[in-house]
Each structure stands twice: as structure tokens, then as C-alpha cells.
Design goal:
- The protein is of the alpha/beta class.
- Helices cover 43% and strands 16% of the residues.
- The protein has helices at 15-21, 26-45, 67-90, 106-118, 135-149, 155-161, 206-217; strands at residues 7-11, 52-59, 93-98, 125-133, 171-174, 193-196.
- α4 (106-118) links the parallel β3 (93-98) and β4 (125-133).
- The longest helix has 24 residues, at 67-90.
- The mean pLDDT is 97.
- It binds 3-methylbut-3-enyl trihydrogen diphosphate (2 copies) and magnesium ion (MG).
- The site of one 3-methylbut-3-enyl trihydrogen diphosphate has 11 residues, from β2.
Length: 226
Amino acid sequence: MGNKLEHLALIMDGNGRWAEQRGLKRTKGHEAGAEVIRDITTYCAKQPTIKSVTHYAFSTENWKRPKYEVDFLMKLLNNYLKSEIVTYQKENIRFLAIGDTSGFSKGLRDRINETEEKTKNNTNLTQILALNYGGRDEIVRSINRLIDKGIKITEESISSALDTPYSDIDLLIRTSGEKRLSNYLLWQLSYSELTFTETLWPDFTPDELETIIRDFENRKRRFGGI
Ligand code: IPE
Ligand code: IPE
Ligand code: MG
């Protein structure tokens, strides 16, 4: 047994291209993508080492998309959380959101808060959705929280003031062949292992995840040492 995967982060990319390749509207790709989140989360919940999985669902830059697509994504998120509560309770999964959700509609904010509240004692896995999330935005908000409380800025204090305090990320996977971070978890990814796959998110499977995890376990992580 090599590296232990505790915290996995995913950039779920390629929904739009998946739909366009099929002559469908981009929104159909988002619908298909939401089903894959469920499969991957259920798989992660069954892995004894994995404690949390963080999905990039909506970035601070995604507001640049056409209004109908943004509106669709908001509605999809609301429906996803509404139906997912059954899985969260069955699989003992805690749900948390990171990002600045203050600009979301009241209905969606209530749904997010209610889902966090109902699942707060679940211990098998934490599923974190990054919603209106930007890595730079999170770091800035974290530093402002510390300034407001008069706390000295250190690596530890910034880490503890992030949207949710959690361990560094062990492995990041981005689907769809793009090789960039797109403002995701900039602080938490500083020593993560990275994997980029050509697979579009709606085609991503637990089997492919398993193959990537085996590869991760065999990597040599040095953390600056030798
Ligand atoms: C990722 O898929 C989902 C979100 C950003 C919400 P995209 O919608 O970015 O799909 P592509 O990259 O256009 O194919
Ligand atoms: C990153 O994907 C954001 C999410 C997956 C939510 P994008 O598709 O928005 O990223 P860019 O624009 O290609 O970098
Ligand atoms: Mg994309």
C-alpha cells in the first residue's frame, strides 16, 4: 500500500462538449453530469480511506455564461440537493458547500443550509460542492475574516479560516482534456498530485476513478524532501 487517498478533488469539465457531440443542448450535458456526481460519490463512500470529495460545480467565472445556462445550473443544483438527501442519509454522507453563496436566490440558499443541517452528523464521507467558488476569492475572504477578528496572518490561520477547514488535497482530477486549474482550490492544491483525463465528465465512471486511484497510490510524493 502506497499513498493513502483521503481527500479527492474533481474538476467536472466537459458537460457542454458531451452534449454538443450528440447534437443536444448543453443543458443536457449538465443533467447527465449530475447523475455522474451521484455515482462517483457513492463509489467514494465505499472506499475506506476516502474522507472527503470536493466537486467544482460552479465557479466565480461561470456567471459569464448565457443567463439561461446559469439559471438552468441553479435549478439543477436545487433539484440535485432535493433528491440527493436520500442518498446522503442512506450512505451516511455529510454535505457541505464552499464558495460565496450569498448571491444565490433565497430558495437555493435555504436548500443548501437545510441539506448541510440535515447531514451534519453523517460521518462516512464528506461531499463538498464548490458553488460560486473561486480560489482567490476564498483566500481573500479568509484573510478578511482574520483581519476582522484581529488574528495574525499565518499559513495556519489562513488554512483555518477558509470556507471549510479541511486537510490538504491528495489528488485532483480534471476531466475533458483541459490542463488548467481554473481558479480551483488554489491554497489547498499546493502539494496535490494531478491527473488530467480526456474523458468528458458525463462519461467518467467509478472504474476510471479506480484506475486513477491505483496510479496515485504508486506515485512517489516528496513534499520537497528526497
Ligand atoms: C463543466 O462543464 C460544468 C460547469 C462548468 C458548470 P462545461 O459546461 O464547462 O463543459 P464544456 O467545457 O463547455 O464542455
Ligand atoms: C471549471 O470549468 C469550472 C467548473 C467545472 C465548475 P470551466 O469550463 O468553467 O473552466 P474554463 O473556463 O474552461 O477554464
Ligand atoms: Mg468547461
